[in-house]
Design goal:
This protein has about 110 residues and is mostly helical. It is built from six helices and no strands.
Length: about 110
């Protein structure tokens, strides 16, 4: 019964398949941008980057090969980005601690506007 019904359903055209694929890729990209913009994921991302650099994590499990030109160039860039992310996380944590430790509302307001 299922196969008979399946034969009656029209298939997608090439253009429809391409359109759906593009929409899926755009949605994945948007979702990743949102996930990466949340500072709660930064520690996890940093951990994965460090594992990649230490060769403790497989490159092909974490990175889409088709999106990069050279692994060597990727690793050089990744090392620089890890340092930048560590510095940024320190600044974020310091700012958060300043807000948390503010004694009164005025100090708390001043800490949030830095």
């Amino acid at each position: 019964m299922y196969l008979k019904q399946m034969g009656q359903v029209p298939l997608l055209t090439r253009e429809e398949e391409v359109d759906i694929s593009k929409r899926i890729e755009a949605a994945e990209s948007s979702a990743l941008k949102i996930i990466y913009s949340v500072s709660l994921t930064a520690d996890f991302q940093l951990e994965i980057c460090k594992k990649l650099l230490a060769r403790e994590e497989r490159f092909d499990r974490v990175v889409l090969d088709k999106k990069i030109d050279s692994r060597e160039t990727y690793f050089k860039s990744l090392a620089k980005q890890v340092v930048a992310l560590e510095d940024l996380l320190k600044k974020i944590n310091n700012a958060w601690n300043s807000i948390e430790n503010a004694k009164n509302q005025t100090l708390r307001k001043r800490a949030t506007t830095r």
